[in-house]
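U., I forgot to send this yesterday:
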Amino acid sequence: MKRVVLAMSGGVDSSASAVLLKEQGYEVIGLFMRTGVHSEEGDTRADHKKGCCSVVDAGDARRVADRLDIPYYALNFEREFDKIIDYFSDEYLAGRTPNPCVVCNNYLKFGQLWEFGKQLDADFIATGHYARILTGPTGEPELHKGLDPEKDQSYVLNGIKRDILKHLLFPVGAYQKSEIRAYAAKAGLAEVATKPDSVEICFVPNGDHASVIRKRRPDLQTAGNVVDTEGTVLGQHDGYERYTIGQRKGLGIAAAGKRYVLNILPETNTVVLGEREGLMSAGLTASRVNWLIDTPAEPLRCAVKIRYRNAGSPGTVTVTENDGATVVFDEPQSAVTPGQSVVFYEGSRVLGGGWIESRQ
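Result:
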């Protein structure tokens, strides 16, 4: 019997994963990450939508583990998670748009949790992500998209190290989300079967990321001017951390026609607005690229995904020094955003990914 440590969030996906793994004959050990993030006062099960780290979630995860008669550990990762919130704040203050879910996966779920799993002599680590590990033609494990295109989470898994793929299990990745909800209900997990999906960053429960940053960095002065591409002042803003590349709503500027955030200049606290055409980029540069294949020696033709809700576009990736890469799109792409992940695909297979540094 193979031993699996399962990251249990208290949501339907990880709970159904526990049932599936048990049915497949694995010895399952549940792990819950205590991050130090707490629900807001008055938060209830009905309106709770984070689904990853609250008191409500911890209680749900423990009840599922008890019902399935599997060992359950709640691990204190508050100090480690605090570093992720610092990263989140500092990226916005650098004029970039962070992706904390990718960092959490790389550092905690497939880093720290796996280290703990090895202490328990585990053979595998499992999560409720909608992705798949398939065996390639050479017998090597490959990371692939989940079968449900609306729920596929392979994009946020691009930083997983290649040598850990053989130790990964994604039990729900071969199912549609509706099937998983029905499966959880049939297994007697009615409370989690109807639980809302996670739709927010867990430490930004009200969607106001700027308030998180200001609590972290209360002494910073980030107010400044909103200008057009010619440098003409259109108005003022109370903090450039409130903006991201491509943003159109909530600009606080009255103007004829649609305006978009084209650039954020933290050195002068300036937000630059312009027309949609100004968002188009022929390519990008990336850093800290993690390859799940042998590092390409020649330019690589593949599909390139620049954000989670991006379908992916054909392009050419060229490896550069110091784990970097350049991408040239076949057709210009809109709102290439520094700080976000860029992920490379061949069909459903994830070839690798990195962090967007600049657009071209």
